[in-house]
Amino acid sequence: MALRSVLLLAIFLFCIAQVSSDVEIEEQGNQVVKGANRRLLSLDCGGLCKVRCSLHSRPNVCLRACGTCCLRCQCVPPGTSGNREVCGKCYTEMTTHGNRKKCP
To answer: Which InterPro entries match (predicted)?
Structure first.
């Protein structure tokens, strides 16, 4: 019975160690964990999208769409409109369910 308890405790501690090593708090720099041991430089999607959507007629809708596009494509075009080609194919070809351009 004691051996079983020790084994369960060891497995529990191992799982906790794995979870804590895979998750990184963003305070430690500008890196974000994407899966096990893969780190990509993160963008300030919130700040970039705030600038991008500042003149939009529906800023909340724009911010939500821009945030999704930023996370998926790792890019936000400069300015408040246009310039989509700067971010490449990912940003320019993403569409909504109604086949309209998703990214602002």
So the answer is: GASA (IPR003854)
Chain position carrying tokens 């191992």: 14
Q: With beta carbons less than 8 A apart as the criterion, state whether 95 and 83 touch.
A: no
Q: What is the pLDDT of residues 48-73, one digit of tens each?
A: 999 999 999 999 999 999 999 999 99
What does the alpha-carbon distance between residue 96 and residue 102 come to, in Å, rounded to a whole number? 5
Total-model pTM: 0.58
Instruction: Residue 50: count other Cβ atoms within 10 Å of its Cβ.
Output: 16
What is the rounded distance in angstroms from the CA atom of residue 70 to the CA atom of residue 78? Answer: 12
Q: Which conformational region is residue 99 in: left (phi greater than 0), alpha (psi within -120 to 50 degrees), or beta?
A: left
| C-alpha to C-alpha distance for 41 and 76, rounded to whole angstroms | 14
- Do 50 and 78 touch, CB atoms closer than 8 A? no
